Amino acid sequence: MRINIFVVFAVIFGAQQAVADNNLGEQLQSGNDNELYISQVSSSVDNRAYQEQVGDNNSAYADQSFSEDSYIEQTQAGNGNWAETSQMNQQGSDAITYQLGEGNIAAVQQLGGSGNFAYAHQEENGNTIYLDQYAGANDNHAEMWQVASNDNFASLVQDGDNNYFWSWQVFDSNTLHVNQVGNENTGFLEQFGTENTANVLQTGDFNSFDVIQRASHNSTVTLNQEGTGHFSRIWQGGHNNVVMAAQNGADNFSFIQTFGDSNTSTLVQTGDVNMADFYQWGERNLATIDQTGSGNSVFGGSEGVANSIDIDQVGELNLVEVGQLESSSNDNVIVLSQNGIGHSAYLGQIGNGNTTLVTQTSADNMVSVFQTGDSNVATISQN
Q1: Cα–chain-centroid distance for residue 351?
Q2: In the chain, how many domains are there?
Q3: Cα-Cα-Cα-Cα dihedral of 334, 335, 336, 337, to 10°?
Q4: Is 234 in contact with 221 (CB distance < 8 Å)?
Q5: Of 103, 204, 251, 342, which is the most buried if we count CB atoms within 10 A?
Q6: Domain range spanning residue 267?
Q7: Residue 182, by phi and psi: left (phi above 0), alpha (psi -120 to 50) or beta?
């Protein structure tokens, strides 16, 4: 009971001081099935809220509103715990959550405001993070870490401009969903392990996103960007991985690299003056690039055995420069289809048993194919 009495005093103290600046609320609980609440609501500056729980099936809630340079920190050690933070119309404030254990949930919400920072950190298995910065929240920074753990889920929503996101998930069967709405937003996520999933959606203009999956097998990346001037970069190392990327708009750039065997990469770009750059190292990999529009370009290639490249361009004045140029790059395939006027293609293969198939439809197109080795085939059709 002594701990419970202390907690009640901390809540009352925090509530009484919430109308002024430099408020401090501290709460501590040890045991199971406990709850903590703290609220600091005022047009104030430099408020501080700290909550710590040790045990299982505990809940902690903290909220701050209409203040500047304020701080919330929640720490939970145990299983089946819930930590929730809400900051509304804050400026330059931080929300920090640490959870150690299994089956925990962290929910961080920053509504409106600008220049805020949100961080959630979880260790062990079966944990969940929900992190939201929205309602025109600009210039914010969010980070999510799930380390030394499996079967975790994390979700981020950012609505506003000039926001930044970074996430790290370590070990297997983890899932991450990212939704950024606005302009000039930036994201970076890294997953280390097998059977991981990353889903990213960016809507607006001049956004960028980087995805890295290391030591990865049977993992999937899905990345969609809607708007103009986007940049995406995807890197996978391992086997049996899948990349599915799409950019809808103009002046977008996508870069994809895979290392390993039996990986599949698909990129769809719709609009004008888009660029795709890809490369694959390994065996039995497949890269598929579809571009619709004018002034688009594809650069890249593969090294290894039995790799396939399939490119389809529809529009005008598009360019392809692709090669499979390692001396031991045998039994590889390049298939290119260009439909429209004024296309150019430069293709090269080094090794044995390679195949190049090119189809160009309409007028003023050009193709150049270079092959060195034995038992190679090159077929060009221009209509």
Answers
A1: 37
A2: 2
A3: 180
A4: yes
A5: 204
A6: 185-273
A7: left
